Amino acid sequence: MDKQLLLSAFAERFGQGGTVYASPGRINLIGEHTDYNGGFVFPGAVQQGIMAVIRPNGTDTVRAYSMDLKDYAEWPVNDPKGPEATCFRFVYGVARELIERGVDVKGFDTVFAGDVPLGAGMSSSAALESCFAFGLNDLFHGSISKWDMVLAGQATEHKYIGCNCGIMDQFASVFGQAGKLMRLDCRSREFEYFPFEPKGYRLVLVNSCVKHELAGSPYNDRRRSCEKVVAAIQALHPDRKIETLRDCTWEDLEELKIKNEELKITAEDIKRATFVLGEKDRVLAVCDALNKGDYEEVGRQMYRTHEGLSKEYEVSCEELDFLNDIAKECGVTGSRIMGGGFGGCTINLVKDELYAAFTKRAVEAFEAKYGHKPIIIDVVIGDGSRKIE
Ligand code: GLA
Question: How far is the CA of 175 from the centre of ligand 1 (A)?
């Protein structure tokens, strides 16, 4: 992203000045669809993200321009409905959520742009939310914590966009640090930075360019299945406190398989919960393997996650399964769908010496089959939300 370009676009519309903020997209090594189930995730921020120039304008109106979409909107900060276009709803929602958290947000002018591909499962929306949560808190002298920024972004998704997402994306965007992954316990919100230097390997994304759209979608359905299973297991065990699938065991699931009909749990609900319980085990196995520097084991678990996301959670698509097969054929250490699914990227753990052959083959074979080239993105773990001086 070019800061100068953004500043000139701002100057052209609103006059010289403004402060620049940036927030990244994210990758996730393992732990998919575990965040809203109280489990662990393993994300890191990337170098690509959203950048915004923002300046209070002394009125109660927000005036916003998206450089990427070449779209402009304005609305009163406290408008009960807000703008219609999704990209502005993020900005609108975050401002409202900040106000609810005590930040005195007034009118402002802004121009924003990004280089994190939209709909690629790299959380362009969390990048946008976090950028404004961080920037508006700073400019309007708020004193909310980083966690409040994360929660304001997540609440924006829930209330203004219609996606009942978990906490991973906004967390990674706000808290990211260059060169480090983070292991987050989504229940306690405790986390740890994990230097990630897999000597001899690298992380590569292959973006299928099949757009995923999570809002009001099958994503929310999956989440609902998990919550139904939790309620059913709780009903079977009133003596225990079962809040999320994190609190459920394989035995609980076996029991539910027998009593499912009376509890109105479908085979599909059970299949989805099976994925989540499996993923919980895989994240722990990966932590163990990382501690031992055993990247081959990390890779095996990634393939298992792909299998689970595809067959049990059913959030894959033909193109992503194809990319996963190609990775296997090329002898790539680990490969899987990254993020919510339904399109977007695979994340691949690739030995240095295989990188060139794998990426070439993935691009050629994919293009031959689907008529367009996938995009190769080399992962560089970058910093979280910040002001650009
Ligand atoms: C999306 C959501 C996250 C998380 C992932 C799947 O990115 O925003 O909260 O649930 O899907 O792991």
Answer: 16
